[in-house]
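Duplicate of earlier report; Kynurenine formamidase input re-posted below.
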Amino acid sequence: MTLWDITQAVRPGIPVWPGDTAYQEERVWTLGPGCPVNVSRLTLSTHTGTHADAPLHYDAAGLPIGAVDLVPYLGPCRLIDVTAGQGPVEPEELSGRLDDAPPRILLRTYRHFPHDSWITAFRAIDCATIERLAAAGARLIGVDAPSLDPEESKDLRAHDAVRRNVMAILEGLVLDAVPEGDYELIALPLKLAQADAAPVRAILRALPMATRAGA
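Output:
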């Protein structure tokens, strides 16, 4: 069955949110005489690369990522290409594209994902678009951008709309190679018991023909 890996490669030099922790990888044990294994130490932000935001990230009373319901991160999804637009993604860009949509929506905003540089002016998601997705039954929104809200935002209106509608968030997806359409999403976050987010290995899998036909 066809798979698409939509995860960033976590590596030294991976772009991170300005001021956040840079990724570091150190070999602390090395395979050789007297040592039978290689072992590394990692230093990273919980928001490194492709990751899931926990409610705790934007709500002081929210759940940590280790306690969230996993159901939103696994199941049918719809990938929608909004690369033709500019500025925040508005509800009108989804007009006619949410009919019979599964409860997980992924939005592709980059024509080419910026693997090697930080893009300040990424396309955020208007809070009205979050409300539109919630009204269509969405339980998860995933984006290729590093955040639902603009880099300079202090009120995080899109994240707040997610909180009100009890949705899950994936950020930093790599969607360049995937055509628009419906897929199975597999993107389970690490079970970090008290953390505000966690890296994920995000995969799309082609749906069986019967599922795509509505069975």
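The longest strand covers residues 74-81.

Merging into the original ticket.
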